[in-house]
Amino acid sequence: MSTALLRAGDLPGAAVTAPEGGQAALRKAARRARRLDARDPLAPFLGRFAPVPDGRLFLDSSSLGRLPAATPELLDRVVRCDWGDRLAQGRAPWRDLPQRIGDRMAATVLGALPGEVVTADCTCVNLYKLTVAALDARRGRRTVVVDDDNSPTDRYVVAGVAAEHERALRTVHTHPETGLDMETLRAAVDEDVAVVVLSLVSHRSGALLDMAEVHGIAHAQGALVLWDLSHAVGAVDLQLAATGADMAVAATYKHLMAGPGCPALLYVRRDLQPYAVQPVHGWYGHREQLAGSVPYDPDPTVRRFLTGTPPALSLAAAEPALDLLAEAGMAAVRAKSRALTGFLTKLAGAALEPYGLRPAGPADPERRGAHVTYRHPRAGELVAALAGAGLFVDHVPPDRVRLSPGPLSTRFADVLKAVSRFREVLSGSDPAGVAAGTGESGV
Fold first, then answer.
1. Which residues of 252-279 are buried (b: 16+ CB within 10 A; e: fewer)?
2. pLDDT of residue 291
3. Strand 168-172 vs strand 224-228: parallel, antiparallel, or unpaired?
């Protein structure tokens, strides 16, 4: 596909000629980007990531976080020393990895207490386990609430659990750009609701919910809340304990930068653990893990939500990113994220929107997570053309482009370069010509 397909005159509602204001805005922004980078307290972290090759630009941390420079060396040491040299004896420290990494995540990025988090399985499996556990903890209640903007895979899992356990599934409508209205949620939650399943940050729009307000609405009716934090953890300053969170799951390969294949996290508030039944009985969740006794006797702690042998290499890969996030502090990470997305949206308003790109998320940085989305009638083609031009962003079907600058690995100058390259592709002046790949990924 040639980028000529994407010239402004070919796009519905777009300007026919390239607006001069865009170039002027970019020149002015260059000076501001230099000032912001010069006083960025997180700038030293940029050198602690593996470099992006060949001058490419990466604004897709909501799909897969950047590789910390320390990760390959750590994995090599685990493979060669723990596995290669120690052989079967190397297994002993691996047994506690799900809890040890979970406790680190609790303290570093979740605002949770020790003994409330484990890392295990994938997000879907953990969501299944906790949805079943929530229904069991609220026996007699017949309804599960989910919203129609939640991740498709979350809705698949929740609908399956509701059907399996003969519960009613109540789906509330969420505005596709501004997020779930709290009065809409309030009207949907009554005394028959067992659990409300929501994403804290919308994978499409980036809309950020008020966790404490949602808890207040659900808890007033005696319902539990099960969060998917996949697009929040590692980018939003979470305080699960302070807000009274019940349960949560999250992918670890996005803003947590733990790498592809790293198990998801699972959180259950400590006082709920003895009453939360784990539906997948495996030896790792047994009270006496190595005893081999029958029948199954679940561990009384959060360990009961484990199933089988942990993938030690993938879990080990989570450590370097947690080191970086702990050193930076989540308050600083969140502040940088808001500044980056604010800078991006301001630039896009002047340089990209005249070419037919339309904002598709909250305008206020306080009400969005770490990514911004734009609507475009040829979003899939556009993302592919951007990849061909060396700018990697994401396509959220059918018509959205998602941009997510990683706070620890992105300069303001990188955002400026990305917007400039984006503008070249939209205007048809980009020399790359043919796009590489589809540019599509999961949520």
1. bbbbbbbbeebbbbbbbbeebbeebebb
2. 78
3. unpaired
